[in-house]
Design a protein that fits this description.
elongated; alpha+beta; two-stranded antiparallel sheet
Length: 406
């Protein structure tokens, strides 16, 4: 084996220019593939993180019928039994966020609009998404507060300001009438348009009183200490709760429409990656074809002197692998500092593109992910391609007829 490696290594550098060109083509293809993949994973990761932080959370405990028919009648009882189940898994849970989300009619002297009333625990909500940092005017809620906070888009639609009153009408738990007059304590800037134009924040206690739903929640958000353990924690909670009354769902289920859109978008990305892989394959294949054409006399002499075909085929195969892995290793070494730099210093966006990103609640930057799996994936794909391309000289050596070689 050592002899094969030595012979193959020396053969590679007999034509330095050809070998360096081949290694460079593999290097740049691997570099582009890794950078492109890091950009894709980073962009999708940022989108998911924003949706999870501002909307769904990683895990939700719900009534079994709530997803099919989201109403107060299908809210869950947040009793001591459920609290005990959460406490049993507290070593893997960072914090929980109790919520009531239900529709109501908001009215002012001049405007009427259907809204989403979101009853929250201000302290728990601050751990998930600190809305106090986005206050446009006034102040945010405190625990047990009897006032409300409006999203900025809804405040403009209803034409209200801090200190004004808003009438809320709706249907509470088990058909109870929900009605009340609330003072606007503050206006918060919500960057997601759908939430901005429809959301009213209310303390959890006030929302439970408004909907006549004492000790009830529409969902209990569970945030794991390590997001990668989301499915594991959700499975344990699902085993612990009463399946006749409660269910546990993850963000992947709650955001399945967005994930489906991402998968569709990834199909286009796959085409770009496929082109890069084709470049790598034909770069290697071109080198192999040139090598075989240039060394036909050499192969003829070696076979005539008694070298076994399997040994000659092994040398050629080893040469292909050495060139490939030299390019792969060089590509990884070059890409690591580049991806790390842009991971720590995302590319800022400007102009209309930046404003569009801000309007949808995203930071106006192009993020890059720095994860080992990105590099491992490219190494695996290019290595497989190299192993396949390396079979061609093996085939040619075994099919070669020395009497026809000139």
């Amino acid at each position: 084996m050592n002899i094969l490696l030595k012979i193959a290594w020396r053969n590679i550098w007999r034509n330095k220019k050809r070998s360096l060109i081949t290694i460079s083509s593999v290097l740049f293809a691997v570099l582009l593939a890794i950078v492109f993949k890091a950009l894709e994973v980073g962009s999708y990761g940022q989108m998911i993180e924003n949706m999870v932080r501002y909307s769904t959370g990683y895990i939700q405990v719900q009534d079994v019928l709530y997803e099919e028919e989201p109403s107060m009648d299908h809210s869950l009882l947040y009793d001591e039994n459920l609290k005990a189940i959460i406490e049993q898994h507290s070593e893997k849970i960072d914090f929980t966020v109790p919520r009531i989300q239900h529709f109501a009619l908001a009215a002012t002297p001049t405007q009427t609009r259907g809204v989403m009333v979101m009853g929250i625990d201000p302290l728990a909500e601050a751990k998930m998404n600190d809305l106090t940092q986005n206050m446009q005017s006034g102040a945010f809620l405190t625990p047990g507060d009897s006032d409300i906070v409006l999203a900025n888009g809804l405040a403009e639609i209803l034409k209200v300001a801090v200190g004004d009153s808003v009438v809320l009408l709706g249907q509470g738990f088990q058909g109870a009438t929900a009605a009340g007059v609330y003072r606007v304590k503050g206006i918060v800037n919500i960057r997601l348009p759908d939430l901005s134009n429809n959301t009213i924040y209310m303390s959890l206690e006030a929302a439970q009183w408004f909907f006549a739903a004492e000790d009830r929640l529409t969902s209990l958000i569970v945030m794991p200490q390590h997001p990668r353990e989301t499915n594991q924690i959700a499975a344990r909670l699902l085993d612990a709760v009463d399946p006749d009354w409660l269910t546990v769902v993850t963000w992947e289920h709650l955001l399945k429409d967005i994930l489906a859109m991402m998968r569709f978008d990834q199909a286009g990305s796959f085409v770009m990656m496929l082109i890069l892989y084709i470049v790598i394959t034909f770069g290697l294949l071109g080198t192999i074809l040139t090598m075989i054409m240039e060394r036909r006399r050499e192969f003829n002499m070696l076979l005539s002197l008694g070298m076994k075909r399997r040994i000659l085929a092994g040398v050629c195969y080893t040469e292909t692998l050495l060139i490939s892995f030299a390019g792969i290793l060089s590509g990884i070494l070059v890409s690591i500092p580049i991806v790390m730099f842009f991971h720590n210093n995302p590319i800022p966006l400007t102009g209309d593109m930046a404003q569009t990103m801000i309007d949808f609640g995203f930071e106006p930057v192009i993020p890059f992910a720095f994860e080992p799996r990105i590099f491992i994936e490219q190494v695996r794909v290019v290595a497989v391609l190299s192993l396949l391309v390396g079979l061609y000289p093996v085939y040619k050596v075994f099919r070669m007829k020395t009497v026809q070689i000139k």
